[in-house]
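#lab-general

N.A. 3:47 PM
ok so I finally got the sequence cleaned up, no stray characters, all 391 residues accounted for. can someone with queue access submit it? mine expired

B.Y. 3:52 PM
send it over

N.A. 3:53 PM
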Amino acid sequence: MTVRYDAVVIGGGLLGGALSWMLAGEGASVLLLEKDQLNQHASGQNAGSLHFQLEYRMVENGWESARTAAAAMPLHLHAAEAWTRLGDELGESVGVVQRGGFMLAETAEQVAVLERKVGLEQEWGLDVSLLDGDESRRVAPYLSDSVVAAAYCPLEGKAETRIAGPALVRGAVRRGAHVRTHTRVTALERDAGGWRVTARGPEGELHVHATTVMIAAGVWTTEVGEIAGAQLPTIPLALMMSVTAPTAPFIDHLVQHAGTKLSLKQTKEGTVLIGGGWPAALGRRAGAPDLEVRPRLLAESIVGNARAAIGVVPGTARLPVVRSWAGTTTITPDQLPLVGRCRGARDVRGHRGSAFTLGPSFARALCDLAAGRAPQVDLRPYAPDRFGVMA
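B.Y. 4:20 PM
back already:
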């Protein structure tokens, strides 16, 4: 028996939840398919940073790389506003706190990077300013004397990764969406009216017909794209982070660095989350990444990440680390998101890149496309077919 839906969403993380919630809110019949548990992978494993400034990975390879990454700034601006409203619109908290964020510099070379970065971001309309070391410490007394400058964005902050994605899925269900977990898509075939979707779950094989298919599959984006006949090139990464024992509140902001991988913030429970892109080791099988295996922590990354944190926030030195873990994410070859209609696979929409921070923006733009509206943000720089089309 084939069940009919207006849209099938593949992936049960934050973006999949946001897509299902928004589509159902517009009256669409929606089926969300997740191959494991909801929020199990990148959306639930990251540190929840809402980083609207360009990240370290976007500026470490030089000015041209930074200019390319800045093409996604309209999505950053939209996401900054969307996160502010999200809890009220959803009707339950997603743990958003936006008290501002810093990107720090400790050397003259890093200050020069910040100056160019801030100028570029201001051209795009981001509310960001460059502070000297003393000005930074007046706002954030916990910063080290080694900090000589900082780019400060008052829009930045954090959201609760444990609750944001599941809250969006609950909101989608309240609007009538259906959810199937432990159900993996095995075939996507086009016909005149849309897509025939085949999936396998605990109750056996599921057959669905959908007008639109939305790919929000995280590190499995490339794999799902291939099933649909779309080329969606992504590079899987395994990244680690650590959390300390709780302590009295002393860090009010999101803290990043212009010269090393660092993302640091304090939770409402008093723990300090330390991350920022230090690598873990992906599992391998037959010479290729094995995305089904949990990544392995690297001692040198744990030590390097802790050293970076202590260097600019000395108060972290007294806090014992109680847990370190690794999660997987992906980037594209040019570090811009994949957002839009997949040419060669009509009525499939895909995404990839910074999916937690920019998730609400991706979801809104893709829902606009599904409804035949022009998205608020020009999606041409992020077109999935910019890397080519599968034969």
